[in-house]
Structures are given as structure tokens and as C-alpha cells.
Write a structure and sequence with these properties.
single chain, 465 residues, alpha+beta, 6-stranded mixed sheet
């Protein structure tokens, strides 16, 4: 019997340049979900993807939500009783700011030559448009060669992932039966290195909050009131400095409740990866490790929680001088969570931390923008085993199982609301400048990712015996 995968891989090789052109077409659409000015562009990106799916054998449509639309597609041709796969991705992107740090316009993608070969540079190149195109190109090639798919495939593309996914849970709940599957495939993570594929088996969750400290009833002249009234910026800065002790442990009440240590087997797997912490730091211009004392870098990144201030503002921040004691000051704080932590407990702890330390006449206001738990996916399942076989078919190096310090809330939502797990198989690299100026995606990763998804589809589509 001939191998159905071989001609699909050949087709992907033949169409590699066309795949890059299609990715650039998608990157030109500035689908920034968090900025209302880009709302028409978000819809345009959704319509572009729905049209692409319709052209490769899907019944696809743009579906309304209270925010930006979803795209849902269902394969038309597949064997009766075939395995059910859900492919998830997001078409929205982060804002391009600061624009002045881009070496080329963020929504005018360019392909440039670099040390490891050509790469495409543009906002969304790797997060997540390029990664979506890895499996979309695999599906395109499979349909072009066979006219059908070996599995019953549903595609779900979101337009609000970069702004907290406010419409996601409601959409999943309302369409539970339509989105039913055996497993979800998500490409929004990374490889171990450019030659070594990886499946991510753990993701940190997150509580993203905004703390505002209110002081006097209005902005005050610092000469007339300075030294006699609390300055909200000074107070908030002092409280922020107390979030960590000298050993790097977080002082939020109840923060570490429920956390389990990684197993000895898992720690041994991580040691065998040969992580180069010096190179990891050097890539961002640093030399000295930081964080929780007594932990390796991979432990800190993959199995320990964090608390980081992502922005702080108050008073006068324009050019020149204005000597003012502000009425309030605000800090944006993200806590990355690990398995065992309850987001509601962490939220309550943040509130208690600031309220207990705030001086008299200062009022704390806490706004939580998003909250999601950490997840662990089974590292021994038929679907994961099939995915490993697929990766083995197209990569020379053996795939590895890794953790991820980032958060992908949809994976937890799919498990909680739809009842099945996800395979987190991404093709990004640490130096892809995710969320930063000059975001890029190696074309080698785009092409190998498409080949890998084709092989994974071949393995997952095999009838169970």
C-alpha cells in the first residue's frame, strides 16, 4: 500500500514559496484586537481565513461574538467514523508599539536573509499567524493531493486572544456539540531549538490585574503639600518593592498554596535537555540569573509562579516639569500560575497584600482583567504518541517534551468546557521577538511546521486497532 503522506510532503515542498506569499498576505492585515481602531481589520482577517478554508474543502463561516468574530470550519470529506480533530489558532495580534523600534513597517512583511536562512519579519509573524499557517498549509496540501482528509476536522480561529479572550468561553459553551473532538491541536508554542521539535505538556496560567492606589482628592502642588500628605506614587512603589523577599519568593498571602513540586522524573528530563542559561540570558543582553533562589532556570520558567509589574503610571509623565503630587497611581501586575494554584485565591491574596499595607487615607482599587489556571496535559496518551510519531517522520532529531512559561488560556477552557485535552505543538523559537518590535518567523520553521502537521494528521487519522 502506498504511503498517503509522501505526496503531501512533496506538494508542500513544491508550494513552499506560495505558502510564504500567503502568510505575507495575512500579515498585511493589521488585526490588532485590543485597539477599537482596528476592528474592521480584525473582521477582514477573519474573512480572509474563512475564504482560505472554504477553498480547501471546509464549510467555513465568520461567526459573530460580542467582540471580534470567530471563524469556524468543518471538513466536508472524510471517512465515516474517522477520528475527530479540532484545530485552534488566533488571527489577532499585539499592537506594534513602539513603532520607532521596527526596522521595517510592522504590517508590511519583509523576507530577509539571516544566519539560519530566510525569515519573515512583521507583527504576527510567529504569534500566531505564522503558526496558524503551518497547519493550514498542511491541510491545503492534503486536500490538493487527496481531495479529502483522514480525520473529521473542525477549525476554530479566534480574534481576541491577545486581548484576554473575553468572548471565548461563552462561544465554547454555546457551541459545545459543534466543536466536539477527540483532541485539539494548538500551534502557539515553541520548538526546543530550530532542529529539535517539541510538544509542550505544561503551561502556566495567569492572573492579570491592575492596582490603583488613591490618595488625596485631587492632584496637589508638591511644594504646598509635599511631606505632609501621602504621595500615591511613593506609596505604591514601596508596596511593589515588598512583593518579593530577598530570596525571590512572592509575599502575596496564600500564593504558594496547593503547588506541587515537579517529579524527579520530570526534573531529570529537563536536565537532559542541556539548557544553556548563559546563552538564554545573553540573547537579551543579560549575564546574571535572577528569580527564586535555589531553582534552576527551567524550574523557574516552567514550574514556579511569578509576579511581575508590567507597567506603572501616575502623576505627570509629559515633557518638562510639573511638580505635582498625584491623586492616584496605578500598576499593572501579572502573576503567572502553575498547577495547583487557584486564580481566585491569588486574586484575593493580591487584594489583601495591598489593602493590609496601604497607609491610612489611601484606598486600594483592584481590577482583574483576566484569570486562568495553569494546565498540564497528559504526557502519555494515544494522541500524544501519534504526534510524536508524526514529528519523527519529518525531523532528524527526536522530539522532546517541554514546559512553557507562557499562558494559553484556551487549552484550559477546552478541557473545562469541551471535555478533551490539547496537543501543544509549536514551531516558534526563543529569539522570535514575540510581542516585541521586529517579530519574525524562520521560513525553515514555517516549512518544517507544515510538513510536521501533515505527518501528525496522517498518524492521528489512522483508524484505531
Amino acid at each position: 500500500m502506498s504511503d498517503p503522506l509522501a505526496p503531501v510532503l512533496e506538494r508542500l515542498d513544491q508550494d513552499a514559496a506560495l505558502a510564504v506569499a500567503r502568510l505575507c498576505d495575512l500579515l498585511r492585515i493589521p488585526s490588532v484586537s485590543t485597539d477599537p481602531a482596528f476592528k474592521p481589520d480584525c473582521r477582514r482577517a477573519a474573512e480572509w481565513l474563512a475564504a482560505e478554508l472554504s477553498a480547501i474543502g471546509f464549510d467555513a463561516a465568520v461567526r459573530e461574538t460580542p467582540g471580534h468574530p470567530m471563524v469556524v470550519g468543518h471538513s466536508r470529506a472524510h471517512p465515516e467514523g474517522a477520528p475527530r480533530l479540532l484545530y485552534y489558532g488566533h488571527y489577532d495580534v499585539q499592537p506594534a508599539d513602539p513603532i520607532e523600534l521596527w526596522e521595517s513597517p510592522p504590517f508590511e512583511p519583509v523576507v530577509i536573509e539571516a544566519e539560519r536562512g530566510p525569515r519573515v519579519v512583521g507583527r504576527g509573524a510567529v504569534d500566531d499567524k505564522g503558526q496558524v499557517m503551518t497547519w493550514l498549509e498542511a491541510l491545503r496540501a492534503w486536500h490538493a493531493v487527496h481531495g479529502s482528509y483522514p480525520a473529521r476536522i473542525t477549525v476554530l480561529l479566534e480574534g481576541e486572544e491577545e486581548s484576554g479572550s473575553p468572548s471565548l468561553n461563552g462561544f465554547l459553551e454555546a457551541n459545545r456539540e459543534e466543536l466536539a473532538a477527540d483532541v485539539c491541536l494548538i500551534s502557539d508554542t515553541g520548538m526546543w531549538d530550530i532542529d529539535t521539535p517539541a510538544i509542550t505538556t505544561s503551561l502556566r496560567g495567569m492572573v492579570y490585574s491592575e492596582v490603583t492606589l488613591h490618595g488625596p482628592s485631587r492632584d496637589l502642588h508638591s511644594g504646598m503639600y509635599g511631606g505632609a500628605v501621602p504621595n500615591p506614587i511613593n506609596v505604591l512603589a514601596r508596596l511593589i518593592a515588598q512583593l518579593h523577599d530577598e530570596q525571590g519568593r512572592i509575599q502575596i498571602p496564600g500564593f504558594y498554596d496547593g503547588i506541587a513540586e515537579p517529579s524527579a522524573e520530570r526534573l531529570a528530563q529537563w536536565r537532559e535537555l542541556g539548557f544553556d542559561e548563559s546563552a538564554f540570558l545573553a540573547e537579551v543582553g543579560l549575564k546574571t540569573p535572577a528569580g527564586e533562589a535555589g531553582r534552576s532556570a527551567l524550574e523557574r520558567l516552567w514550574s514556579r509562579p511569578t509576579c511581575d509589574v508590567n507597567g506603572i503610571h501616575g502623576g505627570y509623565t509629559g515633557k518638562g516639569a510639573k511638580t505635582v503630587i498625584p491623586a492616584h497611581a496605578t500598576a499593572k501586575i501579572s502573576c503567572r500560575l502553575v498547577p495547583g494554584q487557584d486564580p481566585k485565591t491569588v486574586e484575593a491574596g493580591i487584594r489583601r497584600f495591598f489593602e493590609e499595607r496601604a497607609p491610612a487615607d489611601c484606598r486600594v482599587e483592584l481590577t482583574v482583567h483576566s484569570a486562568s489556571p495553569a494546565i498540564e496535559v497528559p504526557d502519555r496518551s494515544p494522541e500524544l504518541t501519534a504526534a510524536l510519531r508524526g514529528l519523527d517522520r519529518v525531523f532528524d532529531k527526536t522530539p522532546v517534551l517541554i514546559g512553557c512559561g507562557g499562558s494559553i488560556p484556551v487549552a484550559g477552557a477546552i478541557r473545562r468546557l469541551l471535555g478533551f485535552d490539547s496537543l501543544l505543538i509549536g514551531f516558534g523559537l526563543e529569539d522570535d521577538r514575540v510581542h516585541s518590535p521586529n517579530e519574525k518567523f524562520e521560513l525553515r520553521c514555517l516549512h518544517n511546521g507544515a510538513r510536521a502537521h501533515a505527518a501528525i494528521l496522517a498518524e492521528l487519522g489512522k483508524p484505531s486497532t
